[in-house]
Amino acid sequence: MIQYFVKRLVMAIPVMFFVAVFVFLLLRLTPGDPAVIIAGDQATQSQLETIRSNLGLDEPLLGQFVTWMGNLLQGDFGVSLISQQPVIELIGQRVGPTLSLAVVAMAMTLVMALPLGVMAAWRHGRLLDRAVMIFSVLGFSVPVFVTGYVLIAIFAVHFQLFPVQGYKPLSEGLGPFLHRIFLPALALASIYIALVSRMTRASMLEILQEDYVRTARAKGLGEKIVLFRHALRNAAIPILTIVGTGFAMLISGVVVTESVFNVPGLGRLVVDAVLARDYPLIQAIILLTAGLYVLINLLIDLSYALTDPRVRYQ
Amino acid sequence: MTTTSSPVLSVRDLRVATIGSRPSEILKGISFDINPGEVVCLVGESGSGKSVTSLVTMDLLPEQELRATGGEVLLNGEDILRATPARTKALRGAEMAMIFQEPMTALNPVLRIGLQMEEVYMAHRDMSARDRRAAVLEAFASVQLPDPPRIYDSYPHQLSGGQRQRVMIAMALALKPRLLIADEPTTALDVTTQKQILTLIRQLQDENGTSVLFITHDMGVVVDIADRVCVMRKGEMMESGPVRELLAAPKTDYTKDLLAAIPSLTPPEPVESEDADIVLSVSGFSKEFRLGSALSRIMGRADHAVRAVDDVSFRLRRGRTLGIVGESGSGKSTVARCVMRLEEPSAGAMLLDGQDISHIQGAELMRARQRLQMVFQDPNRSLNPRIPILESLCEGPLNYGRDRAEIRERAVEIMETVGLDPEGLSRYPHQFSGGQRQRIAIARALLMDPEVIVADEAVSALDVSVQAQVLDLLDRIRRERNLSMLFITHDLRVAAQICDDVMVMQKGKVVEMGPASEVLSNPRHAYTAALIDAAPGRSWDFEAGRPVTEVQPA
Question: Which of these, A78, A144, B348, B483, could form a disulfide with B285 (CB 3.0-4.6 Å)?
Fold first, then answer.
């Protein structure tokens, strides 16, 4: 298993390399002179020259790539064109809120979606099942910002249980952190709760038909044990797949939520960078997200082995 | 019948119906008793309702689909149909226990055997963890499982089918229930394993005085295990009685037909046709499956090779049927797949009418394939459910460039040959019964005008009465068209009835080959003898309706 893990990590190197090449070419293949685009309409010739030499654009392409790669490997992602701060610092400041939001949203998803899905499958065709399904359709079809504003209107404005917006890091205490992050995380989680509960239900419905579930009942076991010990673990693989890809999408999909709740996270940094054509920053964020995808995929694959002893890696 | 003690299980006028807007009755008022220490067999073909009967008794009916609409099921005098769910849950596993058909799927694949076994004690007894473990190991030993501590720590996929069924039996008998329900417990097992499991059930039943409700479709198994038999058909009880009486003098026509359909173990007199030319000649056939990754090959590690078929040679004469007989893992299906070139043989030659077809490719292979056609085991899965029968039949000949109108004409003809109404050509597979579907599969093969038909377990999925009809059909077609047939089967009775010659395989090797009458009545190899000895119901002559061992007065 450790051997497999190392092998997969080694295999991630070429993947990341191709992502890096793509990211590098992204800037260079943009039609026209990137320096002109970056500098804007009003730029003077000397400003353009500065930008070119800053970006190394006066060197041959291969030379540029080698320099850029060399810097990357030393952890130097370049300097933001707008704020002139190192990109890595900018991302460092923003990654905390986004990761917190994603992790809390995912935790909420698991805590709510798994029991909902299991119960819906158990009461298949009954009232509870229908209710979960209706909720799930709602979760899918209502956009995040609507959910967000509705949650704010009810829980922040009307009942005044939570603040309307803002963010406090975990370092300022668990209470304030959770208090601020609850509503945005719930808004973000709504679609994943819908998705995962549906997947859990479908997977459980299939597993509940299996012979070994009948065997478990024939032994006189209680429904709770039948559902959670015997059925859910067997239903886990499709659920894990969905949770994993969901988590990866969640990281890149927080833009709207962060805007609605005014959370200073990565999502808003991306939007700002794209609007300002801050290429070094965009490149760094793409690399980071790609790396995260690869890592999450690996974790999902490993989790299969933990739930199913028949899965053996070579 | 006079019994002093009251029955353990008493089923009275039990009715079960489907749930829905148009409910149909699955059980139409059946009644039977099981006395203490008695083994009662419920026998019937698919759709007879025998499995539903067992599920009602265990209160395990799928509640969305079926429900009991009348009658009573008395376990020690207590009505299961009227008991609360909590009460039946307490009875399940403790007072009544069940063994299922498929040991491969009846155990949870992601939980250790030890835990699954301990759950029985957790659910019904208040025991310490150490006592539970001790009880589990003891139970494993009592069903003669080797190395109980190892089994305890294993997952189901690490055990063989027979071992898993032993675990199931240990689980069912853990709390010494009064009633054991066994639903086709040996159907998925090889004959030699089946014999061991039947002996084990009988032995444990004797020791504990358990009453057994044994469900089976196999009259041979009935002979080996039953005290009394109940014959069911389409939700009704046809007749019941002590096993020997019922087998010797069946009262209803249905039972008579059922018994008559059981193929005899004694092959008919051989027809001599040694002068017929050889259609298919296979020599030195081997098939190795290599397991190993590209990476380990680069690193110079040797592949793990499995020899599925090892140096097999045989000759098939025109108009004859050669049976390949063996248990699972014997390599008999791999031989068939290699002959069809669905697998590439690793070594050996295969001559079809003198032409070596073991390594030909492309257009040549396509021409050869037309002369070899296959009939598969499960007609429910071998026909595409989404296209009408006519399309399934035409695909092959169309592929060989025949004219559509001409094929259509021949399809109509062939449907009649296999005993089906040509009207059915426009229908879909699900509109036919299992036996009809197998006839369609045979028609599909025939439409290709083959010289050799390879039938891989072609009647194994069919009920015994349907099986007899399909065997007759295959035999008739072979004679009428002077076809040769390679017939793969695990069932010695079937082999005895249809094969001229028999080849017995074990672990990839041929252990014995010869005329069916000789091999089956006078086996030379110990393995063949063991197979014949393990065939269920060997002690009973179904044709004559009397035990085989009773020698006729001279």
Answer: B348
- A218:B93 CB<8 A: yes
Domain at A180, CATH number: 1.10.3720.10
pTM for the whole thing? 0.81
Based on the structure, what is the number of domains in chain A?
2
- What tokens were used for B166? 């032993």
| Cα gap B130→A58, rounded to integer Å | 77
Measure A102 CA to nearest chain B CA, in Å: 30
CATH 3.20.20.380 matches B9-260: no
- Out of B111, B120, B157, the one facing A219 most closely (by C-beta) is B120
> Residue B458: what are its φ and ψ, rounded to 5°?
-65, -15
| pLDDT tens, residue by residue, B143-175 | 989 899 999 999 998 998 889 999 999 999 999
User: What is the side-by-side strand order in the sheet with B66-75?
Assistant: B25-34, B9-18, B66-75, B78-79
Between chain A and chain B, the number of residue pairs with CB atoms below 8 A apart is 78
Question: Using 50, 70 and 90 to split pLDDT, how confident is the model at A271?
Answer: confident
Residues A72 and A152 in one domain: no
Q: Are A230 and B108 a contacting pair at CB < 8 A?
A: yes
Same domain, yes or no: A82 and A140 = no
> How many alpha carbons fall within 13 Å on the CB side of residue A103?
9
**DSSP for B137-176?**
HHHHHHTT-S-HHHHHH--GGGS-HHHHHHHHHHHHHTT-
Amino acid identity of residue B307, one-letter, is R
Residue A16 lies in domain: 2-87
Architecture of domain B278-290+302-534: 3-Layer(aba) Sandwich (3.40)
State which residues of chain B have pLDDT below 50.
Answer: 1-3, 550-554
Residue A314 in any domain: the answer is no
Q: Where residue A117 falls among pLDDT bands split at 50, 70, 90?
A: very high
Complex ipTM, two decimals?
A: 0.79
Which residue ranges does chain B devote to CATH 3.40.50.300?
Answer: 9-260, 278-290+302-534
pLDDT in tens, B2-12: 445 789 999 99
Nearest to A216 among B90, B102, B108 (CB): B108
Residue A2 to chain B, least CA–CA distance (Å): 16
Tell me if B124 and A229 make a contact (CB, 8 A cut-off).
no
What is each CA distance from B442 to B341, B382, B419, B420, in whole angstroms?
Answer: 19, 11, 11, 11
